[in-house]
Amino acid sequence: MSKAVIKGSADAAERRSLARSISSAFRAFHASLTLLIDPRVAAPYLIYFVFQMLLLATYLAGNSGPLARLWALPVGGVSPETLGHYPAHLLLLQPILGRVEMILEIFLRSVFHGATVYLVARAMRHGKPSLPRAFSAAGRRYPHLLGISVISSATVYAAVYIGVWLSSDMEGPAMYAVLGGGIAAGLIIQSLFVYAIPYVMINGSSAPAAMASGISLSLRTFTKTLFVVAVPFMLTVPMILLDMKAEMIALQLSPDFMIHNHVASRVMELVSTYLITASATVIFLARKVDRPAGTSLDIGAG
Amino acid sequence: MRTSAAGNPIRTVLLTAAAAVLTAAITICPGCGSEEKSPTYEAEKALFEARRYAGELTFPTLNREFLDRTLTSYRKIIEDYAGDTGSMEGLDLIVVTAQMELAELEFRASMFENARKDFLHAYEIAGNVPAARANALWSAAFISRESGDTAEALRLFAKFYEEYLSGEKILDTARLNRRYLLTPIRIAEICRATADAGCAGKWLGEAEMTYRHVIRSNASEELRKEARYNLVSTCLLGEEWTKARNTIREMRKIYGNQADIPSLLYLEARVELDGFGDRESAVSVFDRIVTEHPRSKEAPTALLMKGNILLGEGRYDDAAAAYNRVLDEYRDTGPETVEAAWQLAILEERRGNWIEASLHYKSVYTNFPTTIQGMEAPLRIAAHYSGTGETEALEAAYERAAEHYERLSSLQYSETIRIVAEEYHVRTLIEQERWEEAAGRLLALPGRYPQYHSFKQNCLMAASIYENELGDAGRAAEILQSCAAKYPGTPLADEAQKQFDRIRGSK
User: Fold this and answer.
1) Measuring CA to CA, which residue among B372, B379, B475 is closest to residue B425?
2) In this structure, is residue A76 part of a structural domain?
3) Which of A114, B78, B237, B454 is 20 to 30 Å from B399 by CA-CA measure?
4) Which of A43, A50, A60 minimises the CB distance to B34?
5) Domain with B502 in it
6) Among positive and negative, which fits the CA dihedral A86, A89, A94, A95?
7) Is the predicted ipTM greater than 0.95, yes or no?
């Protein structure tokens, strides 16, 4: 019996057993956390977090002149002068930085995802993780990473946005059900794309091939992969709920709450993103993946 | 030299993590990392904080500590930014807003003198904010009238009239706030109160001219209606009964809807009663309100008025029926219910049914303790026993009254209620001729209610009690001397000094 057939039947067995899927997902989380023994693995996301904090500091410091005009761009109906006023400046922090970060998420963060996948793979294979090499490798694969990022982000945002749009005229349980449906659809879509970056970074696949292979792998390991995406997402749920009421709390408590809330959200996002990326890479590497001819990426090198 | 394999990654990540933590800390830390914002931004921030403190104040049971914190926040904004208003756009609006909110807060906290002073200051600095300037001047005039300073009230209302209601400014001013239209009526009322008929006549004339100007103008229908109501009030105040009745009837033709008719009918009934002395006609109009507009807010008042007319004529059963109808059908109307219960007590007392009357008085002070009738009721019971010479019952009635006022003076009630209860308590002691206790209480009240200026006068009354009732002129002189020293340069100090000199002179 070939190894592929054995693997296929193992996948089928795992899909049928919820307990096995959960256990497998948690083994992946455990492995991801164990990898932090070499802390360089987490460095790309930490650097991105520093970048997010610097962005926040720039927003807080520059609320007038050309910077204010720049900040007002992503949010319609807000004049730059509004940002010069208190508490409007702080209350607008969430929508403005949210949209700026959405753009950065697509165009910049994909490099950090790629670098993390590279470092996790190196650490898994007991290689010596090198941050410059990781970023260099991710930089070389940028067009593919960007392609995946654009498509996956667009589909995830679309699913969540449709839920928000459909629930906007609803109230009570129906509203929460539709909103929850949108978020669930977003999580499923994210699960389908979660292996695409490992395919690009480890197997050297092109973006379309990586997405096709990634979706195929995700469907074969669907329950486990959904857990890998959903459990870290749950860590961010309290912050998402808090975000929904942040403005009201800020007006009652202090508008500075918007800053604290933003920082806390980014910390939770840092933890969650690392867990998803690292666990997906762990699962990916734990499988036998045929490397397409001529696309070798020497992760053992260095 | 090569570093160890373990040293390198840890250093790299520790550096990154340290940078992340430092950036987050600097971002969160208020005042760190971010450059100094513009004074306008900082002033808005300070105003937001002051408003948040003000939002935390609960007025029925005012916490002085919280109030002081809020007042200080507002004062600090004015102090810090008033000097920069000319140089920074938008700063003047913030300072004026803070000044106005400070004055409003002081007014709500019964700090009338401070409130008036701060409103006048707002008037001075609000040159670029016309709405706030008008509001400040009117509020200062209003407070002057409420605190009995009629000369200042007259001066300020007249200033307001001259600045905002003369010539073509009337409509713009009325659009800011319709109550401003009442200014000439308010002045006429003050003139009336000071028995200055010439002054009252002059301002009633100004009032009529103002309202007729608005009625003839192309102002909104709402504003013209308001002006017509004010015209009726002017006629009533000037006792021009026929003119008042004609205006009301004209209004009934113009405003035939359900909302206006009951109030117009009520005014017509008052004209019949107060102007023409036609009680029968008044009762018939009051009946019409109750029959045709039973759900209107005028219906319970009409029943009360009808009851009062019938009570005055000695038609006790009919009057009682009117009062009982208020209690049965308009139980939730508040002041009318209390008044109906109170009037029933008076009615039964006049009929000679003391047991019934006393039960009504008790129900008034039990069910509506914080109303003025609820304050008055225990002393009315005492007054009855005093009249009949029932000493033991009288003593018990005073005891119950004192307990009632003691309870109402506790912190669970608003300061206004506590002050009224304290005044009734002193009255109880005086009626009981417990002079020393009354004087002691009078002297303690200014310290307990430092914001209530009327209590400062208590020293004169306490001195009078010592001199006239207790025969202790020395103690009276001592009180007067300390009073003059405590409030130097005030009319109170002058009066205290005068009384002090008189006592010393007679010695």
Assistant:
1) B379
2) yes
3) B454
4) A60
5) 444-507
6) positive
7) no
